[in-house]
Amino acid sequence: MVEVEDVLSRLRRYPDVEAVNLYAVDAADRLLLDEAAEALAAAGDDRVAVIDDGYGALTLGAAAAHDLRGLRVHQDLLTGELALANNARQVGLTDRYTVCELGERLLADVRVVLWRLPRALSGIAETADAIARYAAPEVRVYAGGRDKYLTPAMNAVLAESFGAVQASRGRQKSRVLLATDPKPVGELRFPLRNRLDDHDLEVVAHGAAFSGSRLDIGTRFLLDYLKRMKPDARDAIDLGCGTGILAVALAKARPGIRVTATDQSAAAVASTRATAAANDVADRITVLRDDAMSSAPDNSADLVVCNPPFHVGAAVHTGSAIKMFSETGRVLRPGGELWTVYNTHLNYRGVMERLVGKTEVIGRNRKFTVTRSVRGLHT
Known about the structure:
Elements: H1 4-9, H2 27-35, H3 37-43, E1 48-51, H4 57-66, E2 71-74, H5 78-91, E3 97-99, H6 104-107, E4 112-116, H7 121-134, E5 140-146, H8 152-159, E6 162-167, E7 174-182, E8 192-196, E9 201-205, H9 217-223, E10 235-239, H10 245-253, E11 258-263, H11 266-278, E12 285-289, E13 301-306, E14 311-312, E15 315-316, H12 319-331, E16 332-343, H13 349-355, E17 357-364, E18 368-375
Helix pairs in contact: 2-4, 7-8
């Protein structure tokens, strides 16, 4: 049997951002594995699901500790999915798990769920509903995270789908919520829909998608400049598309443009496909789950629009945005434009100037800055 500590000590975050203050395994992962140890041992093969396992600590830790096989895994973020695959190869456990979408294939007849709780309550609600809907009646859900990201509202959301929700004792600033006794389920609550009358656009959003079915204020500000974004663009990319609002707005405003919407979040990709369909532009938008346009060819786009994140998971970190800008410099054709909206205090302008090309501030309000970067001939 593989030693658990040997497995955990060898985990990496790659291909996600790596830095001295960012970790592939933390105290919450270890607490989840300890709290669920007895249930995991009793569950046996093909009865365990793992959800939003950051970089594989829960999946590979459970497999190693209890010699489990047939683990079913769902990770919203592609970087986590790829990191798990890389780490599984590194420790020789590639045959222990299967990747599944959130739904019946992931959860049918499951007795134990290990789950790193996301910060978005809507994401918790959709996943909790799926577990209650498809897992075995005796399922035990071990949902945990770092204390600073857990809120009483999370207990309340879990209680909507489970009859009992209990908190573990804290350890190393981490805690686990145990949810049992799934409640009867009604009609599917997700995805959510919202009509944006001022933009003649319907938004469809799964729970884990950024900003849900609302129009976040950064994207709203960027939309004000839609008509000025490279008028002769033939190929555009909505980078980090979320629910697809920018992609759909571009497709509706410019019938001749080809739009690719890309995000590493499975919930975002599903939301964007649904938003495109709801606005009758699905035939003109290609939606891809990708890590910062890594699969896009060099010199293949005239226009990139982006509302970049400033979090890597729960930690405030600009590494993901910088990775996006670097890929944009590669993907844009000479003369192509990057239009970005970002929190002004982040001051991305110098980074975009270096990685993309000449950058100018086009708009600024009390919170956000909109910039246009033009790729030069030698960027």
